[in-house]
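Kindly review both lines to help learners:
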Amino acid sequence: MKLARVLAVGLDVVTIAAIGYTAVAIVCAARFARRERNRKRNTDTVGNLPPVTLLVPLHGAEPGLEENLRAFALQDYPVCQLILGVARAGDGALAIARRVAAALPDRNIEISVGEVPSARNPKIGNVLAMMRLVRHEVLILADSDTRVEPSYVGSVTASLNEPGVGAVTCLFAGVPDGTFSSKLGAMFMNEQFIPSVLVNKLFGAPRHCLGPTNAFHASVLSAIGGFEALAPHLADDFMLGNYVSARGLRVVISPYVVRTIVSDASLAELWNHELRWHRTIRGVQPAGYAGMFLTYPVPLALLALLFAPQPKRVAVLVAAAMARFALQRVSARALGVESAAACLVLPRDFFGIAIWACGCFGTAVRWRDARLHIESGDLLAERP
């Protein structure tokens, strides 16, 4: 009983800290909704907009891929080259890419087949092969599971005109495909990961990029060593921003929020997906990863109550739940998506804290159908 009380007191302390963190995250999400999303787009005339090459590496015929690619192609932008790339001719995404290109002959769509097999990161191996088709100085690298609007290219590249900006990255909102596991996956993005990014902004300008969309000049990419410099890293997006910052240039977060289509069909798929994210974060930000348990105020408060039931702990649990539900609503509004059902918060948080615990150990991750191994930090072992 004494040990249980000691554990409960310890959990009391971290629960109060978690509630405090959640309150800060609510404020940061509300500020983003008020100041960032409503910021006016760059007022350059169409004639002054530089030509852009949009790179979208593909892997597999994922749900919604054709709609995603059509959205990338149908941009309200004067000159936009769209390069779709697959590593192998047998990839199921190739037929979809060709179908989109054939349906939109007036759009500048090119398809790359092949990869640089020496790249430890398979996505970057694909991108390196795509680079031979690039014709413009301004580049956007985007994930294929994102859905964008016609204003996407213009909005994302606008901040590149600001002095000292080396890269522009975007927040992303998870949009589930309707399955239970996809709903949990979208909740992690919208209610935990993105709020943590906004909280980090309080400690200074971002020094890393986020995965779904990044824009930069080809000259900046060349200055940091090209995509070849990113090829050994699992966290290629993080390192892109890190290398850009090391050159004395700024990484800025665009007001534009992309939509990531979450299509994990089972809890097992979601577990593998999020475990890769967790082990990636642990590799590049070990201290930050250690503190991720602060994003779970409700499980922490509930555990404290179970160890040593007391009225004051009931009050703390109620406070934790109110803060967590408030963050859910405010984050959804900030990202422009529908809030998940409140009844999913508890399973989401217990699922997440289990992944966090597992992510503290181990070096194996799955990326699509590839099994990768981390040597140290986020550096990958060579692919067999």
The mean pLDDT is 92. The longest helix spans residues 2-36. The chain is about 50% helix and 20% strand.
